């Protein structure tokens, strides 16, 4: 059995990058606390990981669109006497379409999930980690943090927030023994685009997608090495570097072209 005291908390841990990260932690004999909305998916993932890696996997079914949900998760973990040694903020969603046509309530949910939950979990666990002078936090951001994203304006905005926020907090706590690592994936083969109704976008329909296992490996290795930030994938590194040189208006126009729907209709569906 894994060391009882070594736990990683992963939001969005039942699919995509989050699930692949869960496997890597389990492989290194971390016990896990997985948070997602579906208890069925949580139970199935937990059973597979326990059987394969012999670690303890606790599950908490919570909808992180709800502003109080992260606090409830924290209280539940606290009540079980579990110390979180590594926090992975991974759960996130987007919405595709011209901003004037998208659903504001869906966008407010996305802001709560992509920003609110990250900020709450980071604050609660960072306070504990700084007190102990040990701990690791992985913020799954996005290449979208580095570039404006027409037809995904709110999603890119939330990821820019996460990258900027993490860089600032890292500076504040740099003497604490706690590391904060940012993972910025590009287009990855997950359920994200389905949930965002984004399969019509050219970069999704016609472009290549990264394997979530490769992205998770990049993030995990950077986290364990205590690195500040990793952009996953060579072409994404190139795109991030170019976007830092070109004017934002030009980058936005290029991204708009890449993000255009194959059917030509930019309205949200």
From TrEMBL:
Keyword Glycoprotein found: no
InterPro entries membership: NAD(P)-bd_dom_sf, SDR_fam
Keyword GTP-binding: no
Transmembrane regions: none
Any GO MF annotation of the entry: oxidoreductase activity
GO annotations of cellular component type: membrane
Xref: PANTHER family: DEHYDROGENASE/REDUCTASE SDR FAMILY MEMBER 7B, SHORT-CHAIN DEHYDROGENASE-RELATED
Protein name: SDR family oxidoreductase
Top-level taxonomy: Bacteria, Pseudomonadati, Bacteroidota, Cytophagia, Cytophagales
